Amino acid sequence: MFAVIKTGGKQYRVAANDLLKVEKVTGVAGDIVEFGEVLMVGEGASATVGVPVVEGALVTAEVVEQGRARKVIAFKKRRRQNSKRTRGHRQELTTVRISEILTGGAKPSKKAAAKPAAKAAKPAAEKEEAVTAKAAEATEAAPKAKAAPKKAAAKAKSAE
Questions:
Q1: Which of 94, 97, 136, 147 could form a disulfide with 25 if both were Cys (CB 3.0 to 4.6 A apart)?
Q2: pLDDT for position 116
Q3: Whole-model pTM?
Q4: Count helices and strands in the chain by DSSP H and E runs
Q5: What secondary structure does DSSP assign to 77-140, as a single string?
Q6: How far apart are the first and last CA of the chain?
Q7: Where does the record place Low complexity bias (predicted)?
């Protein structure tokens, strides 16, 4: 059985135990991810084509590793203008192993990993609070530090 899934703006034809590199998917090695956009499922002539997706179809995969592709060099030159620019880009990729292709609303045998975005939002909020607290302390301490030298300078002038 095969399926055509859509992820990262691209379409992939997959089967069980296939190993493929897709655009970055959140998760660490060993996590289970689900691909819900299944465009086609089937075997040979009995393939089901979705409009635009197949209802109740799901593909689960295990994250093998997170990595980056080879560097792509973008070089631009304007002749006789003494102008050139070089830029490099490395696309982030995730290597996944397809574990199951499910149809008819079946549940996966392994549970998908919880979304780490919710976990990442809490530490970000805590960091922001800590930064604002430090900034408030700095602004309170700054006028006091500036006032002390002025007073000392005024006392020195009056003493003369």
A1: 94
A2: 47
A3: 0.63
A4: 1, 10
A5: EETTTTEEEEEEE--EEEEEEEEEEE-TTPPPSSPPPPPHHHHHHHHHHHHHHHHHHHHHHHHH
A6: 97
A7: 114-123, 132-146
